[in-house]
């Protein structure tokens, strides 16, 4: 009896140890989440949210909402009715069916950097992005084992007119990569054109309404606003039956409260307001609960996406999404560093790991971002991809069985022997452990013989090899011609 009791005591201690490890990073309690929700309801009911878009205001008026000027007031019942129609999961179809992804409470879908106007070259120089850069990143995404969605606005192409650039970017995304799409949300017209192009690829508008094929990013304008273009884009996405990643972008201490709890309540109010509009337009529109919020560095006034508070916001956002039974979007691979250096690697790994461990379902900015969203880096893309690969390896459950315990090998080797020549080692030597592509494990003399290269230099070499080996995915030439004709026609109409 004493032995059994001792065994139970040991098991209890082990469980407690595990629990302590998981609890070292604080998370929201159920009571905390309810309090954030209640505060958000007070914000929506007493302060309201401004929609700087007449069509959006008319939709709210037509559905009985109190509208004062551009400010819309929402009651908790309005929010609950909207939440009741949002699906908890959806499939985002790719033109290559094998690469379609499920977005749900258990998924981990990754997308690259988004929105940067600059590119950091392998030499460490910053320059404006071009369409060629955009296409290069499309190629890297197509060849990536770890990025799931093509992305949009991978880099802003300065060599194309701003009002036409989205057409070139959408065309490149479709032709150069066969993974699921993110569409342009630069304006309502840009969304409509993006969906028209998607309809050419997937059949017709009816088909893509029945099966989402293009996910769009909708950002609020904190505090408590949706701009003319964003609101219009949200409406167009919902009309088209496409998923909306409704994202609050609060700068805590500047455009939101300095207290993280207050920032989370404000963020929650903005997301729920956008979600409500999407369901009024088309009930059942898929919505991803998103956050790009971060603190402000009080020394500089700059957004601090490398701060530890970002990881706290990521974890809390994931929890609030689960509170509403919605998939979540957070950032990953985020840094304030201007070069792919030690700071960039450290900060990016923290945010990426926080997103994965907190259960984020759609990770935007997973690869490539530098300079607080202002730059995309080829070398950083590869480093982030490697970090993502390592984290995904960590997610694989440890299998404990008679086979994996391998007692027979331990008995055969005995005391003081070696396992290198054991059959199981030979069988699994290239599959059991993670094999890096960028990070090297050579000893010092071998590293010197290879040129004593820094990791960012090795990453740049990998980029060049990937681009050289890239092969364009198969695509129906007649469909490609129709897409090109559509783009050419729209350019003439816009100009």
What is the topology?
Elements: H1 2-22, H2 30-47, E1 49-51, H3 54-62, E2 66-68, E3 71-73, H4 76-85, E4 90-92, E5 101-103, E6 109-110, E7 118-120, E8 126-128, H5 131-142, H6 165-176, E9 181-182, H7 188-202, H8 205-210, E10 214-219, E11 225-226, H9 228-239, E12 244-248, E13 251-252, H10 260-281, E14 287-291, E15 294-295, H11 308-323, E16 328-331, H12 342-357, E17 362-364, E18 369-370, E19 375-377, H13 378-395, H14 402-405, H15 407-413, H16 423-428, H17 444-449, H18 455-469, H19 477-494
Parallel strand pairs: 1-11, 6-17, 7-19, 9-10, 10-12, 12-14, 13-15, 14-16, 16-17
Antiparallel strand pairs: 1-3, 2-3, 4-5, 7-8, 18-19
Helix pairs in contact: 2-10, 4-10, 5-6, 6-7, 6-19, 7-9, 7-19, 9-10, 11-12, 12-13, 13-18
Strand percentage: 5-15%
Number of DSSP strand runs: 19
In CATH, the architecture of the domain at 66-76 and 80-395 is Alpha-Beta Barrel
Overall pLDDT metric: 93
| CA distance, first residue to last residue | 86 Å
CATH fold-type name of the domain at 66-76 and 80-395: TIM Barrel
Going by CATH, the homologous superfamily of the domain at 66-76 and 80-395 would be: Trimethylamine methyltransferase-like
Fraction of residues in helix: 40-55%
| Cα Rg | 25 Å
Structural class: alpha/beta
Number of helices: 19
Q: Assign the CATH class of the domain at 66-76 and 80-395.
A: Alpha Beta
Shape: globular
Q: Can you characterise this structure?
A:
It contains 19 helices and 19 strands. With 495 residues, the chain is of the alpha/beta class. The protein has a domain of 327 residues: Alpha-Beta Barrel (TIM Barrel). A hairpin with a 4-residue loop joins β18 and β19. The longest helix is centred in the middle third of the chain and has 22 residues.
